[in-house]
C-alpha cells in the first residue's frame, strides 16, 4: 500500500475543448479526476494541502497543478 501521495495534474480537458494535437496523455477530464479522488477516498486517503500532508493520522493526498494553464480552472 502507498503512503502519502501528491497528484500532479498537468492540464485539465473539458468536454467542449478542442482535441489536443500532441501529448494527449498529459490531459485529464474532470470526470476522470472525480473517479480518481473517489477511489482514493474509498482507500482511506484524506485530501489536504501539500504543507499539511505530514500532519494527522493516516494517508494523505494533495493535488497540484503543473504550470499555470488556463484550462485548469475546470478543476473548480
Structure in a nutshell:
It contains 1 helix and 5 strands; from the N terminus they run βββαββ. The chain is of the alpha/beta class and 76 residues long. The longest helix has 13 residues, at 30-42.
Describe the protein's architecture and organization:
- With 76 residues, the chain is α/β, with parallel strands linked by helices.
- The chain has 1 helix and 5 strands, in the order βββαββ.
- The protein has one helix at residues 30-42, and strands at residues 5-9, 11-12, 27-28, 46-47, 60-65.
- The strands form 2 sheets. Strands 1-5-4 form a 3-stranded parallel sheet, with no helix packed on it.
- The radius of gyration is 14 Å and the shape is elongated.
- The protein starts with a strand and ends in an 11-residue tail after the last strand.
- The mean pLDDT is 82.
